[in-house]
Amino acid sequence: MVKVLLTGGSGFIAAHIVDILLEHGFDTVVTVRSEEKGKRILEAHANTPKEKLSYVVVKDVAQVGAFDEAVKSSPPFDYVLHTASPFHFNVQDPVKDFLDPAIKGTTGILKAIKAHAPSVKRVVITSSFAAIVNADNHPKVYSEENWNPVTWEEAVDHSKVYRASKTFAEKAAWDFVAKEKPNFDIATINPPLVFGPVVHYLNSLEAINTSNQRVRNIIQGQMKEQIAPSGVYLWVDVRDVALAHVRAIEIEKAGGQRFFVTAGYFSNKDVVEIIRQSHPELESKLPPSDSPSDLPANIYKIDNTRSQEVLGLKYRQLKETISDTVDSLLAVGA
User: Fold this and answer.
1) Does some domain include residue 327?
2) How high is the pLDDT of residue 204?
């Protein structure tokens, strides 16, 4: 049986990856930061045999040797899906609190696999559109060929540190494979804003992912007076992102490739109007229907062909995604 290690198992994307791995028949081991989170995952999959799903605690992914024990397994792992990323509430020192952990968390697991898990054939890494985007000078078309040009000097700016951390972490992974020539290859998944249903057993309204926070804010009436700026205009459904990770280990030719996974454009105005249609009972919380959209008329184009042709993704529509997201947020008390 094919065995997979999934890091960051209690994360928003990872929670959906667990379901797809089990559906596709993989024996799955997840890393979590605490026993409590591991137990919650097992309780939520109570009908799954224990040999099909288990967990191991890795308290701090940025620590040297953090994954050394986690990657050792009998029978050994065939694949690793690395979704874990350092988790900080308070960035005071951008290098120490953000950049170093992001880079070391990624290279750390690759080193551990090379040293202790020679059976692993491929590692799929959750990267981001943040590693692709050039916010100061958008190209005509975004694709996997683009890299965020941020420099280390610019990265210490608090407004750029998140995007920089994703960029440097992904570059470090590709550099590791080029220099160290391990037994495995890698693939990266690069989504923009990720919407979609939250998994109830892991989430509170405070602990939801950043992209879904705007949906929560809308249904709680926080944009009733004025729709907040959309910021990034690209989105994707979490279930499509999760499937992309699993397809990237199932499809041989996915190795050695980046995948820009996006369903297309949106604005906060679009989200509001979908909620108005799908959940009319929330009308009193929503801004007026004549509120303007901030989606630029001459926005950059996108090329997500590789994700469709290699991984076979068929992207969900915004209407389905937002409606399902609202349902899941209402279920946890929004």
Assistant:
1) no
2) 65
Q: Are 261 and 236 in contact (CB under 8 A)?
A: yes
| % of residues, the chain, pLDDT over 70 | 96
Residue 320 belongs to some domain of the structure = no
| Positions in the chain whose pLDDT score sits under 50 | none
Provide the whole-model pTM: 0.96
The domain that holds 188 is classified in CATH as: 3.40.50.720
pLDDT tens per residue across span 204-239 = 666 688 889 999 999 999 999 999 999 999 999 999
Count CB neighbours of 88 within 10 A. Answer: 12
In which domain, by residue range, is 129 found? 3-197+233-264+302-315
Determine the pLDDT at residue 89: 52
In a domain, 146, yes or no: yes
